Amino acid sequence: MAYSVEGRRRASGGMLPLLALSTVAEYYRLPWKPPVTASLLAANTLVYLRPAFVDPFIPHINEVWFNPNLILKHKDLKRFFLSPFYHVDEPHLVYNMMSLLWKGIKLETSMGSSEFASMVFTLLGMSQGVTLLLAKSLHVFFDYERAFYSEYSVGFSGVIFALKVVLNSQDEDYTSVYGILVPTKYAAWAELVLVQMFMPSASFLGHLGGILAGILYLKIKRSSHSGSDPVTMVVRGVTRAVTWPLRFMSGLVRFRRRRISGRGRVGRGQNGIWRCQSCTYDNSGWQSVCEMCGLGRGRGNGWSVNQGHAPSSSSSDIPLDELRRRRVERFS
Question: Phi and psi at residue 34, in whole multiples of 5°?
């Protein structure tokens, strides 16, 4: 869950060993260990525990609370992108990570690590953006200032709600949400209401933003024929735009090669060849003497190869012995 509280972190409840035991047991039975899910679990846990080797490099929780007013006023991207990785207390962290463990393993196993990682960070940005837009809209159109100015929230649950929407989108079965049987594809909506009833300190807008981000993600993905996620589509489009000049030049080179690599002599056109009547050898139009027999090109000898059959001319016939003698003289 994403908590919208301003108090201090509560004392440890001893729940971290339970999270560690569940994670080890789940990964032990898997033939393939999903690395992105494990990395997300480790990142969230390390940010919460703040061991000595990490503490100097990560900001304090007071610097990353998600507050729409501060994000827009100061253009604070640190609050926008880092707040999901912070948690208020152990129950907050363990509840979110147990949910991420199950959903992450199922999704990453089915779609692969690279696509899953791309989807997670896309949903993170989209859920934060939708939550920001909701808070701003309530302030502008309904004069509701609390969500915009006064609420401070952290937690990975916005992303988890989005993952739940993606995971259950094609499921036609039923599932139990806090003991209530609902269609699985609508489980996120039921959990949104029930969580808010039992835990009023949870961020309703953060969870709603996650659900809407998941729905928007699915609509964008289904609208693309390739079925790729939005980030992959953007990267592919940018890559195609950047490499267009290279592909254009490569196409020109291939076109020129096709033009000059056909059969026969280069430059052979409709009137560029004349055929000797005596030996039927095709000669270049630039030559006035047959390359084969040496007979000169003149009236009655030589016609373009596209003019059909040779005209009959008995006066130009040469005896076979004479033709052989001329060939021998020419090429010896």
Answer: -65, 110
Each residue of 224-235: b (16+ CB within 10 Å) or e?
A: eeeebbbebbee
Buried b (16+ CB within 10 A) or exposed e, 129-143: ebbbebbbebbeeee
What is residue 174's DSSP assignment? E
- Catalytic residue (choose from 4, 153, 207, 278): 207
| DSSP-assigned beta bridge partners for residue 304 | 274
Which tokens belong to 115?
């696509």
Whether 157 is catalytic: yes
- Report how far residue 233's alpha carbon sits from residue 223's, in angstroms, rounded to the nearest whole number: 11
Cβ(188)–Cβ(165) under 8 Å?
A: yes
Q: From the candidates 83, 99, 157, 203, which is the catalytic residue?
A: 157
Q: Contact 134/209 with Cβ under 8 angstroms?
A: yes
Residue 273 sits at φ, ψ, to 5 deg, of -130, 140
Whether residue 214 contacts residue 160, with contact meaning beta carbons closer than 8 Å, is answered with: no
Reported as a pLDDT band with limits 50, 70 and 90, residue 268 is: very low
Distance CA 43, CA 172 (A): 34
Distance CA 71, CA 136 (A): 11
pTM of the predicted structure, to 2 decimals = 0.67
Query: Which pLDDT tens digit goes with each residue over 9-50?
Result: 444 568 999 999 999 999 999 999 999 999 999 999 999 999
The rounded distance, in Å, linking the Cα atoms of 317 and 311 is 12
Closest residue by Cα to residue 274 from 248, 298, 241, 239:
298
Domains of the chain with bracketed CATH: 54-223 (1.20.1540.10)
* Contact criterion met (CB below 8 Å) for 103 and 95: no
The closest of 292, 297, 290, 130 to 220, measured between CA atoms, is 130
> Would you give the distance in Å from CA 83 to the centre of its chain?
25
Which residues is 3 bridged to in the sheet?
A: 154, 202
**Catalytic: 150?**
no
